[in-house]
Amino acid sequence: MAVKTERQAAWLLVAPVVVLVAFNALIPLMTVVNYSVQETFGNNFFLWHGLGWFQDVLRSERFHAAFGRQMLFTGLILLIEVPLGVAIALAMPRRGPLVSVCLVLMALPLLIPWNVVGAMWNIFALPDIGLLGRTLNGLGFDYNMTQDPLSAWFTLILMDVWHWTSLVVLLTYAGLISIPDAYYQAARIDGAGAWAVFRHIQLPKLRRVLTIAILLRFMDSFMVYTEPFVLTGGGPGNSTTLLSIDLVKIALGQFDLGPAAAMSLIYFFITLLVSWVFYTLMTRHDPS
Amino acid sequence: MTALRPVIVILYILFLLLPIYWLLNMSFKTTNEILGSFSLFPQNFTLENYATIFTDPTWYWGYINSLIYVSLNTVISLAAALPAAYAFSRYRFLGDKHLFFWLLTNRMAPPAVFALPFFQLYSAVELFDTHIAVALAHCLFNIPLAVWILEGFMSSVPRELDETAFVDGYSFPHFFVRIFMPNIGAGIGVAAFFCFMFSWVEMLLAKTLTAVEAKPIAATMTKTASSAGYELGLLAAAGCLTIIPGAFVIYFVRNYIAKGFALGRV
Amino acid sequence: MARISLQDIRHSYQTIVAKAAEYALKRVHLEWQDGGAYALLGPSGCGKTTLLNIISGLVAPTEGRVLFDGRDVTTLPPEQRNIAQVFQFPVVYDTMTVFENLAFPLRNRHAESSRVDARVREIASLLDLDGLLGRRAAGLPPDLKQKLSLGRGLVRDDVNIIMFDEPLTVIDPHLKWQLRSKLKELHQTVRTTMIYVTHDQTEALTFADQVVVMQAGEVVQVGTPVQLFERPTHTFVGHFIGSPGMNVLPCEVSDGTALFRGQPVPTETPAKAPADATRLELGVRPEHIRIAPDTGSGDDGIAVDIVRVADAGRYRVVEAMAGDHRIHVLTREDADTPLGPARLQVDPSRTRLYVDGWLADGADTGRA
Question: Which chains, if any, share at least 3 CB pairs under 8 A with chain A?
Answer without folding.
Answer: B, C
